[in-house]
Design goal:
Nucleotidyltransferase, domain 5, alpha/beta, single chain, 2 domains, five-stranded mixed sheet
Length: about 375
């Protein structure tokens, strides 16, 4: 695994109730990627860990809330020697309101036996902007002011519409490298209202895409000359992250996810996996022809987005590093990896990110579906950043 590298923690800035901490590619100063702080009286400690100490154990709880399911993952130990001690899932009733989501949150936390303990949650979606920017060598206390004054140039939200935070990654006499996060106020406030409705104790709000990237960096063993291309297939949309030593963090949200695949399968009259039901161990399709044909359009769209994003990244930032393809998320169609591989013309399939296989698990037998690991990448990344 890629452990957190030695070096000083980057400087952080804080304003409007948001805090951020960022992790650099290998061989750079590092820490966690980004953190949005909950504006509900929760206390924070800069780039320090959020820990729940139970009988001298360090415990961190990641809470993922998607459109149709809630996932909880509990880590104990240290960052370098973390172990998964519990997981929990609960479906959100189709067409349900905030009350249905709150009930699912309670059920997932109860399944993991951590109901009532502080959690790390997240906000996300295409309206949450993540930018790695280069500024003049400004003092730390002027970074946010500069970003606010130039928010249009940098593609960030104005202070009247969004919550802004930034993390200084590296500073020299000539420039200051910054990772900025800009989140619309309604998204952050809506998530906090849901968590308050569910009576959940929140220590921090993170960014979903950066939690995925944090897991990819931690489990992926990325080499200095590799360009990370990490695809997390979500339910409504997918997240694509690109990162190399020479280039910046780039996050893209693709308008194609598991729901699009399921819809195409149903239209074709093919049995579709149930995204709300517990995951079953994947089996090779008895008749892959109709399934492949039904999924062809969605697979082509995703592959096109990967191809264009990678081409842009290499032309603008890093022409030399070799792409390293990682895949996680909703992988309930067994041949999906193969179809993406063929569509992109790769010589080998995507490497699947699976925390359940890469990290020691001490969860009681029967409490964790071991085949569901790729779907817990975001929850793992959230918990990981609290160790």
């Amino acid at each position: 695994m890629i452990s957190r590298l030695p070096g000083r923690s980057p400087s952080s800035t804080r304003r409007h109730g948001i805090s951020a901490s960022c992790r650099e590619p290998p061989d750079r100063p590092r820490d966690r990627l980004c953190r949005l702080s909950a504006r509900n009286g929760t206390t924070f400690s800069g780039v320090g860990s959020v820990l729940v100490k139970t009988f001298l154990r360090q415990r961190a709880i990641g809470l993922e809330i998607s459109a149709s399911v809630v996932r909880v993952l509990v880590l104990e130990g240290s960052f370098k020697k973390a172990r998964i001690t519990a997981t929990g899932t609960a479906p959100i009733a189709a067409g349900g309101d905030g009350a249905a989501s709150a009930r699912a949150i309670h059920a997932a936390l109860a399944a993991a036996r951590v109901d009532g303990e502080p959690v790390v949650a997240a906000v996300g979606g295409p309206d949450v902007v993540v930018r790695q920017l280069t500024l003049p060598p400004l003092p730390r206390d002027r970074v946010l002011q500069a970003l606010e004054l130039q928010h249009r140039e940098f593609g960030l939200l104005p202070s009247s519409e969004g919550l802004l935070d930034a993390q200084v990654l590296r500073r020299s006499k000539k420039e200051c490298l910054v990772l900025a996060v800009s989140a619309p106020k309604p998204i952050v406030e809506g998530r906090l209202r849901l968590l308050e409705q569910a009576a959940v104790k929140v220590r921090t709000l993170e960014v979903e895409a950066l939690a995925v990237l944090n897991t990819a960096l931690h489990l992926g063993r990325l080499e200095p000359r590799e360009l990370l291309v990490a695809l997390d297939l979500g339910e409504e949309r997918s997240v694509l992250c690109l990162l190399s030593k020479q280039g910046p963090v780039v996050v893209r949200h693709l308008d194609a996810g598991a729901s699009a695949i399921v819809e195409q399968l149903r239209r074709a009259g093919v049995a579709a996996p149930n995204g709300r039901a517990p995951r079953e161990t994947p089996r090779e399709d008895a008749d892959a022809g109709p399934v492949a044909e039904a999924c062809r359009g969605v697979v082509h769209r995703i592959a096109d987005e990967i191809r264009m994003s990678l081409s842009f990244y290499r032309s603008e930032y890093d022409r030399e590093s070799l792409p390293r393809y990682l895949l996680s998320g909703w992988l309930r169609v067994p041949r999906l990896n193969r179809w993406l591989t063929d569509e992109l013309g790769l010589q080998s399939p995507f490497e699947v990110i699976d925390p359940f296989r890469a990290v020691r698990m001490t969860a009681a037998q029967g409490e964790t579906n071991e085949s569901a690991g790729p779907e817990f990448v975001q929850a793992f990344g959230l918990a990981l950043r609290a160790l």
